Amino acid sequence: MQTGSKISKTRPDSAVTKLHPSRKDYCGMLEQTVAAGKALLPHGAASDPAVIDSLSAFIGELQKVAPAEVAADWQVLGKAMLALVKAGGKAPKTPVVDGATVNAAATSVAADAKQICRIDLSSVTG
């Protein structure tokens, strides 16, 4: 897997169609994110379309390569992460997913990453 994907301004999710569930690619994406010192949630203004496009592309790609064990969790986290960023980092006025469901999904993803991928996500989620 190459490092990163070029993000199309008109279709930020265009790379997703070429992907498929793959434990190797999934762990690779997480490993690259941690190695680059990048946060899973971007820093930047929610009003900046580039931030939303970048996060949307990243989440879409993670969701597409996520193995079955965490695929549903990434569907939950993806919705929550996009809503949080679009709301400027504050809890959205209308939650798209309840907090307990988000916490359970995050715990599952972190445990899977640590146990199977051997990656500690705490440095990119805190």
Task: Draw up the topology in text.
Elements: H1 23-35, H2 49-65, H3 68-86, H4 99-117, H5 122-125
Helix pairs in contact: 2-3, 3-4
Descriptive overview:
- α2 runs antiparallel to α3.
- This protein is mainly alpha-helical.
- It is globular and about 35 Å long.
- The protein has helices at 23-35, 49-65, 68-86, 99-117, 122-125.
- The protein contains five helices and no strands.
Number of strands: 0
Q: How many alpha or pi helices? A: 5
Distance between the termini: 26 Å
| Main beta sheet strand tally, sense and closure | none
Q: What shape does the CA trace take?
A: globular
Strand fraction: under 5%
Mean pLDDT: 82
Summing up helix and strand content along with how strands pair, one would put the structural category as mainly alpha
C-alpha Rg (nearest Å): 14 Å
- The proportion of residues forming helix, as a percent range, comes to 55-70%
Low-confidence stretches: none
* Multimerization status: single chain
Q: Order of helices and strands, N to C?
A: HHHHH
List keywords for this structure.
mainly alpha, 0% strand, globular, 126 residues, 5 helices
